[in-house]
């Protein structure tokens, strides 16, 4: 059975439709893996994620990790029952009233007690060895950050073969890009780093997207960013921004054109990036 299949039973469901025994199971399992002296802070950020958060926490509750961890949440001032899910599952959480991923991740960083910060997106599910796999890499000398890959949840709206082709081409592009511009291959839903250096860099909060790439860019001066390709660290998520571009084919076309235009950048480093006006929070 696919490791994430059982979590799909509550994915996209409002809280009132979720069986109480599942909530109890998640709470019990999370309480057993929480540690008061964590090496790793697993930080779940959420904004109006009532229909996804429980599946996310359920997957995290099944984590098998030899390192001591804490799981904490950040509610980005949601208007749905997101905060209630954190409470019901016993996950300590903090409320960030300024809206953006940058503010939410910074809030988590400010409250994290571990040596390493694992970024978790609440609409994503993670395999049981995910945390341990990333931390094993972070524990190696000279490594300051690590990022992995992700797949999309199969559904009837997106052809299986098309999705797999899209993922293969995207993964190949991220792999080639990671040699000279690793910061552009980092994605927040599958990113982890050393907290000491992360606090020195800090999160940018004045931009709508790219806060994790910016963090990775700043971390480069402290060490290497390593990319993990094993399926043990491959998350599964919804279609998010991919679906925002209309049809799956149109989304693929937009990204393919952008990749071709920027192909030369795969072979050169970049020391500075300029903000796009449309990406600034005003």
Automatic annotation (TrEMBL):
Gene3D superfamilies noted in UniProt: Spore Coat Polysaccharide Biosynthesis Protein SpsA, Chain A
Stored SUPFAM superfamilies: Nucleotide-diphospho-sugar transferases
Pfam family, one: Glycos_transf_2
Cross-referenced CDD domains: Glyco_tranf_GTA_type (cd00761)
Location of the Glycosyltransferase 2-like domain: 41-174
Family membership: Belongs to the glycosyltransferase 2 family. WaaE/KdtX subfamily.
Official protein name in the record: Glycosyltransferase family 2 protein
Organism the protein comes from: Butyricimonas hominis
């Amino acid at each position: 059975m696919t490791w994430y299949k059982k979590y799909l039973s509550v994915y996209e469901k409002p809280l009132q439709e979720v069986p109480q025994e599942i909530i109890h199971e998640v709470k019990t399992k999370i309480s057993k893996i929480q540690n008061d002296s964590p090496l790793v802070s697993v930080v779940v950020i959420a904004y109006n994620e009532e229909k996804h958060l429980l599946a996310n926490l359920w997957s995290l509750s099944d984590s098998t990790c030899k390192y001591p961890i804490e799981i904490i949440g950040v509610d980005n001032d949601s208007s749905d029952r997101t905060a209630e899910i954190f409470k019901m599952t016993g996950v300590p959480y903090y409320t960030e009233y300024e809206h953006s991923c940058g503010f939410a991740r910074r809030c988590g960083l400010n409250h994290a007690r571990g040596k390493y910060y694992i970024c978790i997106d609440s609409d994503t599910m993670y395999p049981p060895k995910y945390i341990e796999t990333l931390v094993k890499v972070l524990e190696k000398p000279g490594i300051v950050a690590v990022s992995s890959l992700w797949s999309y949840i199969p559904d009837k709206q997106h052809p299986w073969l098309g999705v797999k082709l899209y993922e293969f081409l995207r993964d190949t592009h991220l792999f080639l890009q990671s040699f000279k511009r690793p910061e552009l291959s980092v994605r927040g839903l599958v990113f982890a780093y050393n907290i000491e250096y992360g606090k020195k860099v800090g999160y940018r909060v004045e931009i709508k997207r790219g806060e994790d790439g910016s963090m990775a860019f700043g971390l480069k001066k402290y060490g290497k960013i390593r990319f993990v390709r094993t399926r043990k660290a491959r998350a599964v998520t919804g279609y998010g921004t991919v679906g925002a571009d209309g049809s799956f084919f149109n989304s693929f076309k937009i990204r393919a054109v952008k990749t071709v235009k920027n192909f030369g950048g795969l072979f050169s480093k970049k020391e500075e990036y300029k903000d796009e006006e449309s990406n600034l929070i005003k």
